[in-house]
Design goal:
Elements lengths: L3 E10 L2 E11 L4 E5 L6 H8 L7 E6 L11 E4 L12 H11 L4 H14 L14 H13 L5 E5 L7 H14 L4 E6 L2 H7 L2 E6 L2 E6 L1 H8 L6 E4 L9 E5 L2 E5 L3 H14 L3 E4 L4 H5 L9
Parallel strand pairs: 3-7, 3-8, 5-6, 6-7
Antiparallel strand pairs: 1-2, 1-4, 8-9, 10-12, 10-13, 11-12
Helix pairs in contact: 2-3, 2-4, 3-4
The structure holds adenosine-5'-triphosphate (ATP).
């Protein structure tokens, strides 16, 4: 039985369409990443899957049940989770969370210790009020992931985490997967694709692609050869180019085009480098920005 089944799911807020005809399944034991730009519908989807929001139409099943009936089987890290009890410490948070979930005192103490160790929380006994936003976020993640649930929904788990802690989180998630199923949302497209078995690309409330990251990249970027990143403004006629802050990304369609682009940029004196394509380029160059797929 799939862990999550979604068929033709739609949801609007008043006249605003947040999700349109979304369908996908998550098999038990896999990590699925829901990715997409701001306003794509990621949080709306997670809220529906976790019984916080009712869909307008469509079928949603979590382990074969309505999400509200499956509440005991999953845990959620919401996007806007906060630590409200400022005098409690990270260790207290994990401990009381486990106690609320039915663990006995000794077991909760032991698992809380394991959770703080696993995440390298060396501030486990300091009150939450003394911690930075990222430190609190990491403590709450450790709390949620200590649950030993069959299914985890993590909405933007990496928000506020520095690169080292993001990598730590990916490591912890990869260890959990197999016995647990994980559905997470993130803006870090490249990182998410490196840990997820499959990704769901959402844009404007619609599924633009669903599958293994490398297959999606191959399908959507099949006409492109590589990416030339110019560290400055460069305008070259006849090539697929996108501005990215101060940089310009130029997408050659062949090795010959790449050589042509490199020669042209050398003449401008702007520094540059040639890179391989990543799933991020699906959004930047692969036709998902035009809203017509
Ligand atoms: N409570 C609400 N009332 C009205 N519109 C809403 C509400 N919540 C979300 N929306 C709209 O629904 C769409 C999808 O929002 P959602 O929060 O699901 O996107 P998201 O992909 O999670 O975005 P982000 O990456 O910015 O968190 C957006 O256009 C948003 O403006």
């Amino acid at each position: 039985m799939p862990a999550v089944e979604v068929e033709n799911l739609s949801k609007s807020y008043g006249s605003k369409r947040a999700l349109s005809d979304v369908s996908f399944t998550v098999e038990e034991g896999e990590i699925v990443g829901v990715i997409g730009p701001n306003g794509a519908g990621k949080t709306t989807l997670i809220r529906i899957l976790t019984c916080l929001l009712k869909p307008d139409s469509g079928k949603v099943r979590v382990f074969g049940r309505n999400p509200c009936e499956a509440r005991g089987l999953f845990v959620l890290l919401p996007q806007d989770v906060k630590a409200h009890f400022y005098t409690l410490t990270p260790r207290d948070y994990v401990y009381h969370y486990l106690r609320m979930r039915g663990a006995k005192r000794a077991e909760a103490r032991e698992r809380a210790e394991k959770a703080v160790q696993e995440f390298g929380i060396d501030y486990a006994d300091e009150p939450m009020s003394m911690l930075s936003g990222g430190m609190v976020r990491k403590a709450l993640l450790a709390m949620v992931l200590s649950a030993d649930a069959k299914l985890y929904f993590l909405d933007e788990p990496t928000v506020g985490l520095d690169v080292e802690n993001r990598l730590k989180l990916w490591e912890v998630l990869r260890e959990k997967v197999g016995e647990s199923t994980i559905v997470l949302t993130s803006h870090y497209l490249n990182e998410i694709s490196s840990i997820c078995d499959r990704v769901l690309l959402l844009k404007g409330g619609r599924v633009r692609a669903f599958g293994r990251p490398e297959e999606i990249a191959r399908e959507y970027l099949s006409g492109l050869h590589s990416k030339v990143v110019a560290f400055g403004e460069v305008s070259l006629d006849g090539f697929l180019a996108r501005k990215a802050g101060r940089n310009t990304y130029i997408y050659p369609r062949s090795k010959a085009e790449e050589r042509e682009i490199v020669e042209a940029i050398k003449r401008t004196g702007v520094p540059f480098k040639v890179e391989g394509l990543t799933i991020e380029d699906v959004f930047i160059a692969g036709g998902l920005d035009d809203g017509d797929r």
